[in-house]
Structures are given as C-alpha cells and as structure tokens.
Amino acid sequence: MRTTFLPCLPTRGTSVPATPAWLHEIKYDGYRLIVQREGKSVRLFSRNGNDWSGRYPWIAEAALKNKHEQFVIDGEAVVLGVDGIADFNALHSRKHEHEVQLYAFDILALDGEDLRDLPLTMRKANLARLLARRPDGIFVAPFEAGEIGPDLFRAACEMGLEGMVSKRSDRPYRAGRTKDWIKVKNRKHPAMHREM
Which of 23, 45, 122, 177 holds its CA 20 to 30 A away from the CA of 171? Predict the structure, then answer.
C-alpha cells in the first residue's frame, strides 16, 4: 500500500527570502520520509511512495512510543556524524539503518484530523505539541522566522551544511512542487556534486 499523503516539494531558488512571511529551516542531507502511525502500525514512505517501513527501526519505535495513536509527519531521515552534521554517505551505505533518525518539519494529520489546509504556523504548533515529550529517534527540526533568513543561510554554509528551505508561514500543505517552499543549496556542499 502506498501513502495517500504525498510530499510537498520545494522549488529551487538562488536566494533566501528576507521578509516576515517566511520560516527558514536547515536543509539536512538525508532522505525525505513520510511517517504514518495508525494504532500499533507505523509505515514509513519515501518521497516516491516506496514503503520503507522495515528500514529504520529507531524512527518506527519512536513513533510507537508517542501517546497519540494516529498521526502523519513529514521529515528528513538522517544519520548524524560525531560533529552533529548529517552524514549522507553513512545513510546511503545502508550500514547504519539502526542509527537513522527523523528530523520532523511538518505534520499532515493528527488524531484523525487532516491538518494540511492549516497554515504552516499552525501545523508547526501541532507538531511541537505532538513531539513535546518525544523519545529519541524523532526530533522537531528547528526553524527561524522572518528577515533573518539570508544570515542563517550564510551561517549554515560556513558550518558546511547543505543549505536551507524557506517556507511561507501562512500557506497550506500541498502535494507536489510549490513556490511556497524555496530550497537554496550551499554551492560548496557535496550534495551539489551528487546532483551534477
């Protein structure tokens, strides 16, 4: 069974927005993952809808430990290196699948209610509540709002991170490519060479 919750995809940009209407998140170098919990069942779906439910046990266990029995979250599956930076090569090797955790950045459903029509700020508040007492394995991705975006992007590049995704704070979640999410990559990051 494939997920009915298809991911929202950012549009590639060349500059980070610098107005109050945007939220900014670090772009982690990992695999996009939709996590669906229904009672005692947890399903993990890749960006393309492939069922990866047996692949990342730490994420599945963390979802099952949550007191809410129904939710759908969107995030990035990552393996963190000793420096705290996502290690794509370790993730891609499939030798560290027990170490893979989820940086959750959006929530699409909770307790049987579809949240995709809510603005991003309200979805973020629901996600924070869902994961407030979270066990290890799923973390809320930090974000900043407003004009600070370009400064955060420069700092992320200086730290050797992949880049940033900026999102309109007042927009709903829509499957497919959207201009309401803008991804700007660090041109010196190894992910740029993988794409080329």
Answer: 45
